[in-house]
Amino acid sequence: MVRRFLFTSLGLAPVVILLHYALDLNQTLEFVLSAAALIPLAWLIGEATEHAAEHTGPGIGGFLNATFGNAPELIIALIAVHEGLTEVVRGSLSGSVIGNLLLVLGFSLLFGGRGEIDRQSSFLALGLVAFATLLFLIPAIPGWDGDPERDSIVNLSIPVSLALFVAYLGLTWYSLRRHAALHIASDAEIKGWSLRLALATLGIATVATALVAEILVGTLEEFADNAGLSEFFVAAVIVAIVGNAAEHGGAVVVAARGKIKLAAEIALASSAQVAVFLVPAVALVALLIDPLALSFRVAELVALGVAVLVAAALLADGRSSRAKGVILIGLYVGIAIAFFLIGDRPNLPDA
Questions:
Q1: Measuring CA to CA, which residue among 120, 112, 117 is closest to residue 325?
Q2: Which class does domain 2-182+194-342 fall in?
Q3: Where are the domains of the chain?
Q4: What is the pLDDT of residues 277-298, one digit of tens each?
Q5: Which of 96, 158, 235, 251 could form an S-S bond across to 108 if both were Cys, CB 3.0 to 4.6 Å?
Q6: pLDDT for the residue 262
Q7: How far apart are the C-alpha atoms of 322 and 300, rounded to whole Å?
Q8: Distance between CA 220 and CA 212 in Å, rounded?
Q9: Which of 299, 239, 213, 266 is nearest to 100 (CA)?
Q10: Residue 6 has what pLDDT?
Q11: Burial of residue 291 (number of CB atoms within 10 Å: 0-12, 13-18, 19+)
């Protein structure tokens, strides 16, 4: 019943896209329709990833989900860069890493219950996020005093971005080779779609998700004004959750079916990919649009550090449980409340 409803609801995405370009709808209505359209798209990405993982194994399946699932976030970030919304870009990226580590992983453990996870792969992903957080301090600390958008911070952001790219490419190559060696698909395991169909579905769903997410983000400013929310909170919490809709849906779907290892891989691989690939990619591409300084705020980096430490402590034994999921979700709620309370960054004069 639920599966049939979600499949039927996939038609909402093209309707939302058509209405957006054909009619001048109320932005609040567009926000609601776009949010609703993302739910079945997230389910479809989860379905396609699960079928792809039958051929590739959970490690590579999680990587595929992270790659396709993060594509909308890249598009959203570059659109925000073009519009000069640098605080929105930084907040949405840091919020995405935190959301994947705590919210997506938390719900995966909550719905998946007890089971084993790939401890080595988990700590590789957590190590990448920790490494990125430390490197972010290089351009962030100067931004805590004076203008966080000044050219000197942009210049510091370039080598940091390049270093993160190198780390991402090297460790991703190692991780994919390891997972490929660990998993050899047998005919008995492959019960669903072909790998080609699964990948094609992922691609189509990702494009549709990107278009719908762009519409939704375009209506967020009016929504935030009406709700009295700060730009930083909207970016770090609301935009990040919307951008992570695919990972949320995909991870929860496969976790509820007992594939907790794949669900954990989706959450952790996505978090690491945002930290060491998406952030530097946006910073480097922004040089061609409008230079972006990686001057993250103190609260963002503290939240990243706490999220990594707590996730590492909970996953140290290589086991999942609902209680661990509740802890991660509770921590995310606490961080979201903190982001709400601190509001926007004060306008400071140039240093």
A1: 112
A2: mainly alpha
A3: 2-182+194-342
A4: 899 999 999 999 889 999 999 9
A5: 251
A6: 78
A7: 27
A8: 13
A9: 266
A10: 74
A11: middle
Q: How far, in Å, CA of 243 to CA of 232, rounded?
A: 15
pLDDT at 187 over 80: no
Interior CA angle at 45 toward 39 and 51, to 5°?
Answer: 140
Q: How confident is the model at residue 192 (pLDDT cuts 50, 70, 90)?
A: low
Q: How far from 181 is each of 60, 151, 176, 185, CA to CA, in Å?
A: 11, 45, 9, 11
Q: Which two tokens stand for residue 23?
A: 């009619």
Alpha helices in the chain (DSSP H): 2-9, 12-22, 27-56, 58-82, 86-98, 105-112, 119-143, 151-182, 195-218, 220-227, 231-233, 240-243, 245-256, 260-273, 279-286, 298-315, 322-342
Single-letter amino acid, residue 200 = A
Amino acid at 162: L
Looking at residue 247, its amino acid is: E
